[in-house]
Amino acid sequence: AASVHLVDAKRRVLEPARAIGRDIAEVPFTLAPMPLDAVAAAAHPLARAVLEGTTVLVDVARDDPRNRDVVPIEALPAGDANPALLATPLRDRSGGIIGVLCLLTGRVRAAEIRPHVVAFVEKLSGVAAISIETQRLLAEQKALLEAFIQLVAAAIDAKDPYTSGHSERVARIAVRLGEELGMTAHQRGDLYLMGLLHDVGKI
After folding, report:
1. For residues 114 and 20, is the Cβ–Cβ distance under 8 A?
2. In what order do the strands lie in the sheet with 2-8?
3. Within 10 Å of residue 198's Cβ, how many Cβ atoms?
C-alpha cells in the first residue's frame, strides 16, 4: 500500500492527497490530516520524515489508531500485524519539503529492506515531487489566465451599463449547452472562456 501526503503550510498539517492499495486500486476509506509539530514528530514517522527532512524506515503496529487513521494500513492483508513503513520527504526544485511519500508492506520487516531499495524510493519521490510541483504551477497559471480573461470581459461589459454581466451570462449558458451535448469538463472549461471573450472585439 502507498500514500502521498502534502504539507499545508498555512494550517501546519500533513494532508492526505492519495492512497492506493495492493492492486493499485484507490483506497476507499479516508485518511486523517496530521499536525506538524514536535509532538507529532515524536509520535509518527510521517511527521518525522517531514520535520527532520529525512527518510524514516520503521515497523508500525497495525492496531495503533495513530497508524490506522493516517496511513493506508487497512489496505494490507489482515495477517500483517506489524508492517514496515518507509516514509521519504517530497522535495520541490528549490529543496523545500512539500509532502511525504509513504510505502507500507507486510511481506518484510523494516530491518530486512535493503539500502538500494530505500535509495530507489528516494529517487522515485524526487520525480513525484517535481510532478506535483508542476501540477501546482499549471493550476496557478490557469487561475491567472482565467482571472485575466474575467477582467477583460468585465472591461467589455463596463463600456455599456445595458450589457453589464452579458459576457458572464453567455459563458454560463454556453457551459449548460455543452453539458447537454455531452462535452467533457475540459471542453466545457474552454467553452466558458470563449463565452467570456465572445465580445472582445468591442474594446
Report:
1. no
2. 34-35, 13-20, 2-8, 97-105, 84-91, 56-59
3. 16
Phi/psi at 92 (nearest 5 deg)? -80, -175
To 10 degrees, the CA torsion angle through 38, 44, 47, 53?
100
Q: Which of 65, 116, 131, 129 is nearest to 86 (CA)?
A: 116
**Of residues 147, 150, 201, the one with CA closest to residue 171:** 150
Q: What pTM was estimated for this model as a whole?
A: 0.73
141-162 residues labelled b (16+ CB within 10 A) or e (exposed): eeeeeeeebbebbeebbeeeee
Exposed (0-12), middle (13-18) or buried (19+): which is 11, by Cβ within 10 Å?
exposed
What angle do the packed helices 115-158 and 185-197 form, to 10 degrees? 30
Dmax (CA) of the chain: 74
Can you name the residues that pair with 35 across neighbouring β-strands? Answer: 13
> What's the confidence (pLDDT) of residue 73?
72
Show the low-confidence residues of the chain (pLDDT under 50): none
Q: What is the DSSP string of 51-74?
A: HHTS-EEEE--TT-HHHHHHS-GG
Q: Are 118 and 87 in contact (CB under 8 A)?
A: no
